[in-house]
Amino acid sequence: MKRHRQAGVSLIEVLVAMLVLAVGLLGAAALQLNALRYTDSSTTSTQASFIAYDLLDRIRANPCSNASFSPCSSPGAAYQLANVAAAPSTISGVRDQDLSDFANNVKNLGGTAPDASVSIAGGVVTISITWDDSRAANAANTAAGNTSAGTARVTFTLVSQIATVWTGT
What are phi and psi of 121, to 5 degrees? Predict the structure, then answer.
């Protein structure tokens, strides 16, 4: 008597197909998690740029807030800020309101201990906003096989000319 093999799928073939499917689904899940991390990082960078440009526009709108004479010799100088903690807590004018709003926006940026500074020299404004982006950095380090992922401080810096200093000649 001759035996005939039945056409169909063996149990081993089904198990191999399920293994391939499981590996593919795990890869897709990992890809989605990294996409979410990088989207969060990108959102924070975008918010930092909006905050910096908002303050720059406010400085341009009120460059001589500290001038007791006209024309002012140091446009924007009153907006110097060493860090967020140095922002005015008492509002007594437009400049104080601008710096207070800036500091609050930076504090609400998210992450661990966001900070910012504003320096102005010769009509050139430099606004730097720094935050901890270790979530995205850890994802990149993990993907690269680096297990010593620590914190990743990211700084957004905006430099712009707001005015030409008048020398009186």
Answer: -145, 125
Name the band, by pLDDT with cuts 50, 70 and 90, for residue 68. low
Q: Summarize the confidence of residues 50-76 as an average pLDDT.
A: 80
d(CA 152, CA 9): 51
Q: How high is the mean pLDDT of the chain? A: 82
For residue 84, pLDDT over 90 is answered with yes
Domain boundaries, the chain: 11-161
- What are the φ/ψ torsions at residue 102 (nearest 5 degrees)? -60, -50
Rounded to whole angstroms, the maximal C-alpha distance in the chain is 116
Termini Cα distance of the chain? 116
State phi, psi for 155 to the nearest 5 degrees. Answer: -125, 130
Confidence of residue 65 (pLDDT cuts 50, 70, 90): confident
CB 58 within 8 A of CB 98: yes
Q: Are 165 and 74 in contact (CB under 8 A)?
A: yes
Residue 74 near residue 162 (C-beta atoms within 8 A): no
